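Hey team,

Filing this mostly as a record. A colleague (T.K.) asked me to run one chain through the structure pipeline before their review meeting, and I want the input and output archived in the tracker in case anyone asks later how it was produced. No errors, nothing strange. Just documentation.

Input sequence:
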Amino acid sequence: MPLILVTPLSVLPDMLRTYQPSHLISLLSPEFMIDTPGGFPDSHHLRIAVHDICDPADGKCHPGEEHVASLIEFARGWDGNKPLIVHCWAGVSRSMASAYTILCDRAWRGAEFRLAREMRIRAPHAYPNRAIIRHADAQLGRDGAMVKAVEEMGPAVPVEEGVPVEFPLGELGL
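Output structure:
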């Protein structure tokens, strides 16, 4: 069954061993970006070097349209035969926004609210990065539905670091 796993960086090595994914997405600040893990094909590792910010700030790399476009294009190349792991520093913001983007891209128009509710159930700590969500909403032609759905998720449980969260596409009707 196709599976997206969101995880913090601290447990990424364990998750790579346990899940043996075919694709990996790393969203980290440029100064903390990791190399492709040994034995993992470079072509199956997307590295997006952005800071976890929602609005542009001096000296920071803001998530932009081009970052989200590369995320969508990369995820469309994932066939689902093996898991896709998405991680950021804490597994709370950038990675959750990216997973939500991928889920929405694979879902029908109108599924945005259901998927956001499902994310909140599976990941009470999720606080999807709003810049990524805004760009994804525009690029997927969702007319604000993704933005509104994420805003209506309700407050996240505050954590220093999230825990690994599974999003099995079959269980989500995708």
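Quick notes for T.K.: DSSP finds six helices and five strands in the chain. The two ends are 10 Å apart (CA to CA).
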